[in-house]
Amino acid sequence: MTTPSSSTTAKLTALLDEFNGDVEAAEQALRDLNKFNQRAQTPDIDRSGAAVVVALKNVNRVYKLGHNKVGAINDATLEIRQGEFVAITGPSGSGKSTLLNLIGGLDKPDSGSVQVDNHDLAKLSDRKLSVFRNTTVGFVFQFFYLQPFLSVRTNLAVPGMFSHLPRAQRDTRITELAEAVGLTDRLDHLPKELSGGQMQRAAIARALLNRPKIILADEPTGNVDRANARAIIDLFSKVRDTYDTTVIIVTHDPEVASQADRTIALRDGKII
Amino acid sequence: MLGFKDNLTLSVTKLRSRRIRLIVTLVVSGLLFTVLVTGSLVARGTLASLTSFTKDGFSSRFIVTIYGSPTTNYLNNPAIIKRAEAIQKETVAKKTAEAKRLGIPYDPTTEPKLTSEGGPDGPKQLNLDLSQTASRQAVRELAPQTSLIDTITPVAKPYGLKAIYSGSRLADYNNNSFELTPIVSGKEIKRPQSNSPTPDPLDSFGANTQTLDNSLLEPFLLEGSTLVAAPGDPTPVLAPVDAVEKLLGLKALSHNATSQEKLTRLKDLRRQARNLTFDVCYRNQEAIDLRNLVKQQADEIAAGKGKTDYVAPAVQYASGSTVCSPTTISKDTRSAEDKAQAAKMDQFKTTFGAVAPQTAIVKFRIVGILPQLSFGSSAFDIGDMISSLVTSTLGTGWFISNQAASNQPILGKLLGSQSQNSPNSELVYAEFNGRTEQKRFLDERMCQPQAGITTNSTDPTAGCGKDHKFFLTPFGNPLAALYDSKAGFLNFLSWVLLVIAAISAIIMMGTVGKIIADSRKETSVFRAVGAKRLDIAQIYLLYAGLLASLAFLISLVIGMGIAILINSKLSPTLSIQAVLAFNSPNADKTFHLFGLNLLDLLGIYVFAVVTGLASAILPLLTNLRRNPIKDMREE
């Protein structure tokens, strides 16, 4: 009935879930889980025909450092399509994170346009930008940024609280995501009781709760060991394959970048 | 907007973080609010108790005593003196004629002088002696006949006059022509010398007895007692506490007696004195003269015993065989002619107003005990001073109801003679609707001596200032002073509580504000995962509100504990002191220091929450305006 690759269908599913309540939500979770396992083995798909979800045109972003102005992003133009797994690479200070924040609506360009999922981010009000960050994108940070006073379960629930996701549906998704990221038995723990890898997986699960179209991950493996790093990248691949989610990762790790469909390299704020 | 349940989940969960700082904040704020809560509980309890106690006696009645213009007005009035002298001259002429007709000797020079010399206007000033019939008649003829009650009523009316009462003194210093001597253990008490250092408490009976309206006496009645007396029944009287002790044969408590001892004594007195009756011996001036003559003759006969030239009086008098019985003639050696001459003399006296000697027992019944003021006590005692400030009393002396006094034949006659003979024995009490009215009346109408103007013989109120022509004094207790100090105390207390509230607010603002300000990273993470500014504001405002509520709960528990402790420690002693001070009819009445006023507590709670919210708003607005990326990176 559902095809996770289609955003329209996903929205419909979400609507149906809301109307059908717990049973429907549970069935949906089961279907998603089956699909998740199937798609994990699916070979690469050609996405040249997929819709463009991220489009940057002549984007500039300048930071003031004291009296000096530093160009963090210089005239960047790029397109990323639905379902793509893109790695943004480059040396430190090349503007990787700035680019990611611009795409995620956490930062605004000084000039140029940032179009994400047909939203011109520069034109969105603060309120609409919040809704955008809450539902269209999901952030994963290098330092996880889980709320230390909330249990893993509540941390995962937070985006759902802000999007007013019905509690039953929220709980179903948390269970599903916790199982997918292997944290079912850690849900009632505080973040400080988790390992680095576990915290990052929890952060990924949180980013996925509202089923965003785009995952934006800033050095997600920067603070975990190699094995965990691999697991995290595998997780992103599975997410992309399962939900047709666009995954954009900032990394300076070549091994991580090699897992992506495409790499966007930055140097001194310029896409090269 | 964030759903309330989710908001609560996040806020309550946040309360569990940074526990040590949170506990410090809660304890500090809680303790400061504790002062407010304790203050409210204790102050409300005290005020409620004071209100309850002030309903006793006169504490919630606002009465002013109005004294008539002093008798010097009449005493020094030259016209009255002239008229009195004319009346006396007429009388002397009549007496001379009557003596001639009866054939008895009469010497006009034996007539008493109507005036004495000396006074505020100089040594030549003449003062009328009101004990003389001619003087009294002159006053009646020439002095304004308007009674004080009629004069004062229209003046007091605009001040919120509630009622006006009258009373009169049984014995006026101008007309002390009778005796009322209490009888204890079958004997008349001995009247001490005027300079006796320790007068008998019963000595004040008669000389210091007045009648009053029932309404003014009722608050002081003992339980089950009444001011009503059927003809022939003992006359109800309210007595000073020391007199009651004496009547009951109890020794007065020492000055160092504890409050408990005083209370026990009060209870004993109230129990034993209820409807205690005692007798008083009444003698008119003629009976007093005869009684004195008995002693004089006895002394004279004793001195003349053995002297050959001593001639004993032809008529000898002796005291009656029983207490307070009339003086009798014990020996009469007069000739028939002498007796006839004496009879003529008596007839002469009767014609010119003399009355027969009268001696009689008047029965009284104690219906109330009046507290004793401690003014003039040799030892300085702050407790006594406070008691004196709040004590409800009628004043010193003995009090009888107007009605009961006029129903008793002898007392009724005394009252009648008072109003007839001494126009200024009238006492007027004006009761006002409230303290403000009472105070205004006192302020605006009381004689306030003006500098440079002295009272003169014709108008004693000359120096009082315009519109201040009355001699007034607060009656019952010095309420104006009490209320002023109570208002001042409440004002002071309000300021203290306000300062504490301000300090609490500042400290809470500091601690809560710091917690919120330090939540920058949390705020930025919430923003990154899609929280709107309003969502975050909701979370932290609820958090601050909950924190303030917790601080209030802590203050409520501790405050109640402290207030209960204060109450249990101080209430027993204060209750006794209050019963004694306010002359409470119920000796077991409790003075509570704990009073729950939900509005106060609600006010403190709202104050705590508003402070909490106010502390959160500024740092919250700052956090929300910040760039989330910057805040996340900085940490």
Summarize the helices and strands and which ones pair or pack:
The complex is a heterodimer of chains A (272) and B (635).
Chain A: H1 7-40, E1 52-65, E2 68-81, E3 85-89, H2 96-103, E4 111-116, E5 119-120, H3 126-135, E6 137-140, H4 152-162, H5 167-180, H6 196-208, E7 214-218, H7 226-243, E8 246-250, H8 254-258, E9 262-267, E10 270-271
Parallel strand pairs in A: 3-8, 3-9, 6-7, 7-8
Antiparallel strand pairs in A: 1-2, 1-4, 4-5, 9-10
Chain B: H1 4-15, H2 19-54, E1 62-67, H3 72-75, H4 78-102, E2 115-117, E3 126-128, H5 133-142, H6 148-156, E4 161-169, E5 178-184, E6 187-188, E7 209-212, H7 214-217, E8 235-240, H8 241-247, H9 259-273, E9 277-284, H10 285-304, E10 315-318, E11 328-332, H11 336-351, E12 359-370, H12 382-390, E13 398-401, H13 402-407, H14 409-421, E14 426-432, H15 435-445, E15 471-475, H16 479-517, H17 520-528, H18 533-582, H19 598-625, H20 628-634
Parallel strand pairs in B: 7-13, 8-12
Antiparallel strand pairs in B: 1-14, 1-15, 2-3, 4-7, 4-14, 5-6, 5-9, 9-12, 10-11
Mind explaining what this structure looks like?
With about 270 residues, chain A is α/β, with parallel strands linked by helices. In chain A, about 40% of the residues lie in helices and about 25% in strands. Chain A contains eight helices and ten strands. In chain A, the strands form two sheets. Chain A has a six-stranded mixed β-sheet with strand order 6-7-8-3-9-10, with helices on both faces. In chain A, strands 2-1-4-5 form a four-stranded antiparallel β-sheet. Chain B has about 625 residues and is an alpha+beta fold. Chain B has 20 helices and 15 strands. In chain B, strands 13-7-4-14-1-15 form a six-stranded mixed β-sheet. In chain B, helix 1 crosses helix 18 (about 535-580), helix 2 packs parallel to helix 18 (about 535-580) and helix 18 (about 535-580) runs antiparallel to helix 19 (about 600-625). Chain B is elongated, with a radius of gyration of 38 Å. The two termini of chain B are about 30 Å apart. Residues about 375-380 and about 420 of chain B have low confidence and may be disordered. Classes of the chains: A alpha/beta (about 270), B alpha+beta (about 625). Chains A and B meet through helix 3 and helix 4 of A and helix 1, helix 17 and helix 20 of B.
